[in-house]
Amino acid sequence: MRGDAFEAVLAVRPSSLRDFDRRIRAIDVFTKQPEAESLAAANKRIGNILRQAGEKQFAIAERVDAALLDAGAETDLANALSAAMAEVEPLMREHRYVETMQRLAQLKPVADAFFDGVMVMVDDPAKRANRLALLRALRTQFLAIADIGLLG
User: Fold this and answer.
1) Whole-structure pTM value
2) Domains in the chain, please, with CATH?
């Protein structure tokens, strides 16, 4: 068992040893996927952005407002995340963590495009708060299983 995988699962405090085992097995499968390294790095980056926003006391919107999204990478990520959330919700209820991680791994291209093309910490407070909410929603999906930002 990889030490970083153990720490990633431990960080979310699973409710039982059986659940811990399911999660760590899902992380083991996830780390073998080609998207794993960049998604782990993206989650670490998101965690840092959200932490810095909190330190600077920037507002984070309660939920993503589609009207504030710019066309392109920002809207693409919001739409892809929304679709993924709808698909992983029943998987999570059934503790099907491998399938959940495989579905979330499909977000890699849109997450990469977002980070390549969108400035999160813009001067416009409403847009910044909305972008932070989008990143928090993305990170929350991964944190539902483990803190993959701790991998690698």
Assistant:
1) 0.91
2) 3-150 (1.10.730)
